[in-house]
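Subject: Interface between my chains keeps coming out wrong

I've been trying for a while to get a sensible model of this assembly. When I model each chain on its own everything looks fine, but I need the whole thing in one frame so I can look at the contacts. Pasting all components below, labels as-is. Any help appreciated, I'm running out of ideas.
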Amino acid sequence: MKAGILYSGGKDSSLMAVILNRMGLEVELVTLNFGVYPSWKPAFESASLLGFKHKVMEAEDKTLEEAVKVITEDGFPNNGINLIHKTALELLAKEYVLIGDGTRRDDKVPKIQASEIRSFEDRNNVEYTNLQGFGYRTIDRLSSHLFEFKKEKSSLENNSDYEIEVRCLLDEIHGKGSSSSIFPLHYQTRVMGWKK
Amino acid sequence: MKAGILYSGGKDSSLMAVILNRMGLEVELVTLNFGVYPSWKPAFESASLLGFKHKVMEAEDKTLEEAVKVITEDGFPNNGINLIHKTALELLAKEYVLIGDGTRRDDKVPKIQASEIRSFEDRNNVEYTNLQGFGYRTIDRLSSHLFEFKKEKSSLENNSDYEIEVRCLLDEIHGKGSSSSIFPLHYQTRVMGWKK
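Reply #2:
Try treating it as a single job with all components included. I did that and got this:
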């Protein structure tokens, strides 16, 4: 039985993959892409360095457009990012019986509520798992045992989060740089293989 | 760094232990006991069969008495069992930096709320983990890969849940058999070693 894990190349989704793999499941790491920008590449690199199979899952433009519309109206990314995340889960449910992501206990976005999880599992007859049982300190502790990291300024070249294609479309619609007010500059940690 | 896992010998707490162990932590399995009845023995047997270190953690009578009082007043076990569980976590926090239990997403009792987890972690400067990211179907799936089980009618001899000593004290106070209306007969699954 294969598990499909939504994968960004970060430590959370990497840890979710390793947990399920070490519990005996075959895991495939899956990164969503709308065809706007090949933002899946950093995630592919991290997955390869860990030796996991990686797939790019193509999603429809209209979901990205809807998310960008919501984000523009809201002036902040939360609801739009959640919309993309839920779409990604629904797509995964067409291919896998067991679906995971790296959402942890203290994450605010993306986050799906208990009632949404029940609905998602029942409608699709799938199982959903995440890192809801772990806080960021435990995830830092476990992932620093397991992985090598690169800590760097987030950019188009090194980030596979939903954010990247949202930014590309925001800048296309509202002018170059307009996405910076919604997604401020931040640092990120990317998994670069197993700890030596 | 050692992690202390509240342990009953069931599949949930066994899975929590295996996850943390396979992520690189040394784990110790800990079963609470009030000295009323040696209900820790089945948990010790399961831990031994898995090759994990097991400890019995002695708790004060007054916690069990308070729990029995609450359960008697309520007429159902939930609040009293939660009281014991929270006491167990607080005791574990005196010995371990990382504390785990087998509480899963669809558990109702014992269960600690998000705000209680934050308070517990901050007050004690510890990390708390559980199986909140997993539903029962996934836990059944993973644990059936990992463990051999014995499915049996729950009894004094084969169960290390808090319930056992609560029942003993209830029957002592209110007369033999009086605990049966609060804790009806049920079947349980006990871990009996690694899957061959």
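Reply #3:
Confirming on my end. Chain A touches chain B at residues 1, 15, 18-20, 22-25, 98, 103, 105, 114, 117, 121, 127-135, 137-138, 141-142, 145-146 (CB under 8 Å).
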